[in-house]
């Protein structure tokens, strides 16, 4: 350090840029402060996450038991449970996945493999980027008007189907974007080899490209579905209710019944004045987080299992 | 063609001869179907715009635009109806500013940490951990803001009420840190090594390299992440509905209950408001305002990124 000190004094004699701080010690100290600041910022975010998880667990674990999972909602906090919202969330998950996965993957394949660079493609691309930034509650308004009002003969108003359609549109841009990224990661040489063997584009996609890209597509889809499961605002606008004491039938009529979901139930309990219901909300949050954790670990498992070594 | 050895064995040639006409028509059909799927996203946008315009036009037939912009109270659900959207906008602005003041600096610093300081081994753990934070549903953050952060802040801020903009805004800020961190980190990470090495060769320290070389080089990506974070803060709903209250009032006091645009939409949607009523139309007018604000931000972001993007090959 003494050496650098003498150097800096030598330099300052030669009349360098006055804005440039020549004391290397001072600069190194500032460097340390800056490095510490970045570490503090990172650990602050993680610390809040830890506090949040511990807080929810201590509030909710005491209330969490088997009868909480297998009871319907109730006016009395102590006998209320999350059966209907849990089943409702699983219904939404299944229907949303079966609508948004084929749509998103098909659109992604079209944009990445088929589309030429013309005005139609560019319109769709700008549009998808824009849709990804539209607030989720706006999708709720779209669902309320289109799926609940206009399509009432099919959806029967504020139904599971209307909610699932809304969520599907919400996560469609994310699925399209991840599909395109996964397809882009497949080397072009595979496509050229396929053409050389006389296959057409769809045959190459079906037999070669899609199977390789599938793990990446599935990972992205599961992550976007876990976002859909945590969404509350669009479902409230579409008309999910906080008090349901039946399970939907496993039929098309079941799709048209009114519904609830875990985040809706949590919101309903949080908004009540009694402390006992707040405890129920915490227990509901634990259930929701477990569902999300299961989905996310499936996604991470898929990613690790099928990731191609480069 | 008669010399083709395959033509001597007609029984086998069937196996060799693919049905080209069929596979061609399958190809055409698939392409058309997938183009249709891609078009669904355009239909979605058209649907959003038409939905909002349709109900908003009906709203403005009953309430003149100037009252919407200049009223100083927001009471569409009372008998003395007033429609000052500025009341809701001021609340959204207040919570967004608090959230952004938390999320932008902390998110950018965390991005710098991940991209420049964290060793590769640690980075492999930090990124998924931040992703977990990003995956926490907002209703959970709302619970956290109302029952943990507010009582904590009340212990040393006198006069703070149970519902307030401050704790909702702070928690909202924390919830969008991962978004800023992850997108900015991508931008920083893609700045080529040679630029850093050039700065070191000129005698810069690490901090000087980051601030005067790496950050400017990644500027377009960082600004894009900032703008996305701002529109996320403006459009966020549940944290503000749960923790900031349902009390529309004009002003910027962070310690009292307020009502944001999104919280109003939730409040009306929770009650069973019949279609065609004025209250039903107000949520679309409020939604239109929200949509226009985020759309403006998106367009600006798109323009900025195209204008200032640095390309490295």
Can you put this structure into words, describing what you see?
Chain B: It is found in: Cell membrane; Membrane. Chain B: It comes from Nostoc sphaeroides CCNUC1. Chain B: Pfam families: BPD_transp_1. The radius of gyration of chain A is 27 Å and the shape is globular. Chain A has a single domain (63-307), classed as MetI-like fold (Orthogonal Bundle), CATH 1.10.3720. By secondary structure, chain A is an all-alpha fold. Chain A is built from 14 helices and no strands. In chain A, helix 8 (160-184) packs across helix 10 (201-230). Chain B has helices at 10-16, 20-62, 65-70, 85-117, 120-135, 138-154, 165-189, 193-201, 206-217, 219-235, 238-243, 261-270, 278-308. Chain B is globular. Chains A and B meet through helix 2, helix 4, helix 5, helix 6 and helix 8 of A and helix 2, helix 4, helix 5, helix 6 and helix 7 of B.
- Secondary-structure content class of chain A: mainly alpha
CATH architecture descriptor text of chain A: Orthogonal Bundle
Question: What's the order of the H and E elements of chain B?
Answer: HHHHHHHHHHHHH
As for the CATH topology of chain A, it is MetI-like fold
Membrane topology (chain A): Multi-pass membrane protein
Main location (chain A): membrane
Family (chain A): Belongs to the binding-protein-dependent transport system permease family. CysTW subfamily.
Pfam families (chain A): BPD_transp_1
Describe, in short, the structure shown:
Chain A is mainly alpha-helical and 310 residues long. Chain A is 75% helix and 0% strand.
Task: Fill in the keyword field for this structure.
heterodimer, A: 0% strand, globular, B: 313 residues, MetI-like fold, 2 domains, 74% helix, 0% strand
């Amino acid at each position: 350090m003494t050496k650098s000190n003498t150097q800096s004094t030598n330099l300052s004699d030669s009349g360098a840029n006055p804005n440039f701080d020549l004391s290397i010690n001072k600069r190194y100290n500032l460097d340390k402060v800056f490095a510490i600041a970045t570490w503090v910022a990172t650990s602050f975010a993680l610390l809040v996450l830890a506090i949040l998880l511990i807080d929810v667990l201590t509030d909710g674990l005491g209330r969490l038991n088997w009868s909480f999972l297998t009871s319907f909602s109730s006016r009395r906090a102590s006998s209320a449970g999350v059966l209907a919202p849990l089943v409702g969330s699983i219904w939404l998950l299944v229907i949303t996945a079966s609508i948004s996965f084929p749509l998103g993957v098909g659109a992604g394949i079209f944009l990445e493999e088929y589309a030429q660079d013309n005005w139609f493609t560019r319109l769709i691309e700008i549009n998808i980027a824009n849709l990804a930034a539209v607030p989720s509650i706006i999708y709720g308004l779209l669902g309320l008007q289109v799926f609940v009002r206009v399509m009432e003969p099919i959806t029967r108003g504020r139904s599971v189907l209307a909610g699932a359609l809304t969520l599907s549109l919400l996560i469609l841009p994310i699925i399209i974007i991840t599909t395109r990224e996964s397809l882009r990661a497949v080397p072009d040489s595979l496509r050229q080899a396929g053409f050389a063997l006389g296959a057409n584009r769809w045959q190459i996609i079906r037999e070669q490209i899609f199977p390789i890209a599938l793990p990446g597509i599935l990972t992205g889809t599961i992550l976007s579905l876990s976002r859909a499961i945590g969404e509350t605002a669009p479902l409230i606008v579409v008309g999910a209710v906080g008090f349901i004491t039946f399970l939907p039938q496993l039929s098309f009529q079941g799709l048209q019944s009114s519904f609830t979901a875990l985040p809706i139930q949590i919101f309903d309990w949080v908004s009540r004045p009694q402390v006992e219901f707040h405890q129920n909300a915490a227990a509901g949050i634990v259930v929701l987080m477990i569902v999300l954790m299961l989905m996310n670990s499936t996604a991470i498992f898929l990613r690790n299992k099928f990731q191609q070594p480069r | 063609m008669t010399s083709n050895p395959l033509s001597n064995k007609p029984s086998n040639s069937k196996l060799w001869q693919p049905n080209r006409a069929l596979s061609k028509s399958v190809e055409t059909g698939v392409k058309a179907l997938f183009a249709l799927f891609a078009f669904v996203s355009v239909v979605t946008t058209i649907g959003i715009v038409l939905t909002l315009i349709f109900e908003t036009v009906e709203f403005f037939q009953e309430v003149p635009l100037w009252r919407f912009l200049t009223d100083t109270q927001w009471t569409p659900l009372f008998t003395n109806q007033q429609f000052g959207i500025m009341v809701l906008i001021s609340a959204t602005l207040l919570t967004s500013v608090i959230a952004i003041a938390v999320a932008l600096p902390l998110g950018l610093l965390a991005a710098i940490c991940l991209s420049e300081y964290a060793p590769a081994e640690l980075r492999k753990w930090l990124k998924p951990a931040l992703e977990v934070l990003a995956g926490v549903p907002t209703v959970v953050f709302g619970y956290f803001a109302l029952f943990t952060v507010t009582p904590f802040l009340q212990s040393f801020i006198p006069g703070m009420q149970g519902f307030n903009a401050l704790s909702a805004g702070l928690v909202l800020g924390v919830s969008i840190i991962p978004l800023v961190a992850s997108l900015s980190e991508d931008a920083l990470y893609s700045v080529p090594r040679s630029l850093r090495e050039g700065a070191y060769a000129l005698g810069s320290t690490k901090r000087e390299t980051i601030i005067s070389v790496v950050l400017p080089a990644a500027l377009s990506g960082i600004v894009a992440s900032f703008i996305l974070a701002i529109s996320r803060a403006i459009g966020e709903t549940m944290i503000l509905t749960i923790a900031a209250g349902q009390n529309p009032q004009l002003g910027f006091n962070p310690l009292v209950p307020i009502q944001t645009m999104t919280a109003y939409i939730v409040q009306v949607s929770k009650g069973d408001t019949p279609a065609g009523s004025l209250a039903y139309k107000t949520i679309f007018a409020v939604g239109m305002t929200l949509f226009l604000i985020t759309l403006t931000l998106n367009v600006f972001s798109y323009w900025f990124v195209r204008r200032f993007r640095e390309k490295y090959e």
